[in-house]
Backbone:
């Protein structure tokens, strides 16, 4: 059967075309991931400081379209209204961040992030003016002594002095505020602990003696409870980035492992089958030994002791992956070698290697492609399983690792569905695409399966 | 090749695999193992010296010298003065493991507090067997019934549904379905507990009941993932049998279709089915590590997972050995059954 016939046969199979369709989408996603998201982002996947400006444990943003309540979105406020005053020796720089807060829930937190150049030890004051006119002081602290160098800081709503200042305001509220977090008090009605909608102004003032404070950059982050297409996890990571980056890695691992193990198995099996006798016997006994090894425990031990770089794991998976193909291709080679043209080639004095590679293996090509396609899902799920146990390569985000983190943070029992569903669906869809293609190829390779 | 000889070669291969796994494990974690063994000898001797009051009339320095001498002597007796890859040491280690002497765990203990690896394994193994045999039995019952039914109604809705379900379900990882099940049944509808470890001590009379209740969610998950491909397999075996002449003859006599299906055809499809059953049992044992980790089921798999997390090497070696032994035993059983049912294997 030549390539054109195979293509024509394949085009007849609906399920095979569906598989190709999914695969094309996955490849497109990989290309998008590689081109649009800078490589630094995914290398920083496990670096918490890289994700500080993202909201914690947020549902996907589209949830607002289907939910009756409007869940607060993530807001990063930049370009505040600036004002500078000088009275005598003291200069005051104030920043006003105004925001219309019209959601039905409290934000998850707020963070003020700035970097400033100053000399001396200026005083920083942060307060919020609420829609009902109540002004709450949040923080008042002096910055460390400096002589003109740049100082950057993040002030979190969980800061102890924020808590202390809020305790002073406790008598403004009719309910007990002791156990509530800062954002739940600041954004609450005074009569009951319910969200107060309207315009909030966060005011930050820098007081300094003799010289001005030069604010290089500043932003106020109002942590939302919804974010992005997929949402974020407990470590504030944008899951969409992780999923997108997981795609090229899953495809890479799956395809490389499948090609590697099928090619090795094919050559091994054909060689054993063609040679026969003692060679065949001893090669197949070795095959039996590898076949009977308990794969997962050994993979785990290998990953723990020899290391878990992505290439090592690919190698380990190939070591355990070639056995089945070797068995089948051996039996096929035994059938083919009795055919007359092989006998003829032998009598003409062609070398064994040449007969194997020129006359036997080309006959097995459809079978080879089918086996490769069928081997991919196994490789992807096994790698995901290893990652899930925490033995994956920590430098890259993979679907298995996202699920590992989800499991170790107890996402399932806490109901964080957006952390669990998407990675698993990606694994399954990728697997299905290859199973579809493999089944279609298998029908071509084994005409007997056709009905 | 006679049947006996076939069995003998298989048995020898299996034993070879067991030894190969063992040697591979020892080779991979041998160097770390040395450090741990040396430490444990030191602790043991120092404890002995203080317990027996050996240094009663000695100064501190003299006592230290004596203790050191005792430690060195013990290490020499145990062969620890030589590196782990010395043939004699490997031989000793293998010999010890063969008689199931795995030594003491470094961190982990059994529920009753023993740190003997053998005790820990003896405690955990029955639970894994309980979970996975229960699930496998239910899977095969559903699978055989459903498979036979779809084979008799080829290309019906049921048949197509079974085939689709088989393909789709086999591409989901079991542990992921496990997380979803926890989400649905422990969070959304609080029917089953999220952790499969019963909160009461194992000596409590209600323990077995609690264990069974906690087992429900993992069992349902394993069944959900497994029965589809089982039904598909049985269906394919049955299609072959149903096309044979004897079935046509039985139909011609007028034996009811149901009787033909479940009595006569199933009997003829039994050999490959039984073989696959034994093989799938061994396969699920390997998968136990991840499944038990998800559900926190207190069996061998979770023991393995915990041992990896804290690098408890004696437990890793012991658990690998026992898991491998069980794995091989079921492969061997599958071999025997296959050869017993299929005479072509006997004659080679």
Residues:
């Amino acid at each position: 059967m030549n390539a054109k016939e195979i293509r024509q046969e394949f085009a007849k199979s609906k399920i095979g075309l569906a598989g190709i369709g999914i695969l094309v989408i996955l490849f497109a996603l990989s290309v998008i991931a590689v081109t649009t998201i800078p490589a630094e982002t995914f290398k920083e996947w496990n670096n918490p400081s890289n994700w500080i400006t993202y909201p914690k444990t947020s549902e996907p943003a589209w949830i607002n379209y289907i939910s009756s309540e409007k869940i607060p979105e993530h807001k990063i406020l930049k370009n505040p209204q600036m004002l500078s005053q000088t009275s005598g020796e003291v200069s005051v720089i104030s920043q006003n961040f105004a925001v219309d807060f019209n959601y039905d829930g409290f934000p998850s937190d707020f963070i003020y992030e700035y970097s400033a150049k100053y000399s001396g030890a200026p005083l920083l004051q942060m307060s919020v003016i609420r829609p009902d006119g109540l002004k709450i002081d949040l923080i008042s602290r002096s910055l460390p002594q400096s002589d003109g160098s740049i100082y950057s800081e993040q002030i979190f709503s969980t800061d102890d002095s924020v808590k202390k200042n809020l305790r002073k305001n406790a008598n403004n509220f009719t309910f007990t505020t002791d156990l509530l977090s800062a954002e739940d008090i600041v954004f609450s009605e005074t009569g009951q602990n319910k969200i107060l909608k309207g315009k909030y102004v966060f005011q930050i003032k820098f007081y300094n003696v003799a010289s001005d404070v030069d604010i290089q950059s500043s932003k106020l982050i109002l942590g939302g409870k919804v974010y992005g297409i997929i949402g974020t996890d407990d470590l504030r990571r944008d899951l969409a980035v992780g999923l997108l980056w997981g795609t090229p890695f899953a495809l890479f691992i799956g395809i490389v492992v499948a090609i590697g193990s099928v090619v090795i198995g094919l050559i091994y099996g054909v060689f054993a089958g063609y040679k026969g006798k003692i060679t065949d016997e001893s090669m197949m006994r070795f095959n039996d030994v590898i076949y009977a090894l308990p794969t997962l425990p050994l993979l785990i031990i290998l990953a723990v002791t020899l290391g878990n770089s992505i290439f090592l794991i690919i190698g380990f998976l190939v070591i355990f992956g070639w056995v089945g193909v070797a068995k089948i291709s051996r039996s096929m080679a035994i059938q083919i070698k009795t055919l007359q043209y092989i006998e003829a080639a032998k009598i003409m004095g062609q070398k064994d290697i040449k007969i194997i590679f020129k006359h036997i293996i080309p006959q097995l090509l459809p079978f080879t492609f089918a086996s490769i396609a069928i081997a991919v899902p196994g490789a992807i799920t096994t790698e995901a399983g290893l990652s899930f146990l925490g033995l994956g390569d920590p430098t890259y985000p993979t679907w298995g690792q996202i699920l590992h983190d989800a499991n170790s943070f107890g996402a399932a029992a806490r109901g964080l569905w957006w952390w669990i569903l998407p990675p698993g669906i990606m694994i399954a869809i990728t697997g299905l695409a290859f199973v579809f293609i493999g089944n279609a190829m298998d029908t071509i390779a084994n005409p007997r399966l056709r009905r | 090749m006679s049947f006996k000889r076939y069995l003998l070669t298989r048995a020898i291969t299996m034993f070879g695999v067991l030894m190969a796994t063992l040697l591979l494990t020892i080779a991979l974690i041998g160097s770390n193992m040395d450090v741990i063994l040396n430490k444990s000898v030191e602790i043991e001797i120092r404890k002995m010296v203080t317990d027996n009051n050996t240094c009663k009339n000695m100064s501190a320095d003299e006592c230290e010298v004596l203790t050191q001498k005792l430690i060195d002597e013990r290490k020499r007796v145990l062969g620890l003065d030589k590196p782990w890859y010395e043939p004699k040491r490997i031989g000793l280690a293998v010999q010890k493991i063969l008689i199931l002497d795995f030594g003491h765990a470094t961190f982990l203990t059994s529920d009753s507090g023993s740190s003997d690896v053998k005790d820990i394994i003896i405690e955990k193994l029955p639970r894994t067997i309980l979970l996975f045999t229960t699930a496998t039995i239910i899977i095969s019952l559903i699978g055989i019934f459903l498979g036979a039914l779809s084979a008799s109604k080829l290309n019906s809705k049921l048949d197509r549904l079974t085939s689709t379900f088989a393909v789709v379900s086999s591409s989901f990882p079991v542990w992921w379905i496990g997380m979803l099940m926890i989400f649905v049944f422990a969070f959304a509808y609080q029917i089953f507990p999220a952790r499969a470890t019963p909160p009461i001590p194992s000596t409590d009379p209600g323990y077995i009941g609690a264990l069974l209740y906690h087992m429900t969610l993992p069992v349902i998950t394993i069944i959900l993932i497994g029965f589809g491909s089982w039904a598909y397999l049985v269906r394919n075996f049955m299609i072959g049998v149903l096309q044979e002449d004897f079935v046509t003859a039985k139909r011609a006599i007028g034996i009811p279709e149901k009787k033909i299906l479940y009595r006569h055809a199933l009997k003829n499809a039994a050999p490959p089915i039984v073989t696959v059953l034994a093989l799938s049992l061994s396969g699920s044992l390997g998968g136990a590590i991840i499944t038990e980790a998800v559900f926190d089921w207190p069996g061998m798999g979770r023991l393995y997972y915990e041992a990896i997390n804290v690098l408890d090497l004696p437990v890793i070696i012991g658990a690998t050995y026992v898991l491998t032994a069980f794995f091989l035993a079921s492969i061997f059983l599958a071999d025997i059954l296959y050869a017993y049912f299929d005479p072509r294997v006997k004659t080679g």
Summary: The mean pLDDT of chain A is 84. The interface with chain B takes residues 285, 288-289, 292-298, 300-302, 304-306, 377, 381, 384-385, 388-391, 403, 406-407, 410-415, 417, 420-421, 423-424, 427-428, 431-432, 435, 439 of chain A (CB under 8 Å).
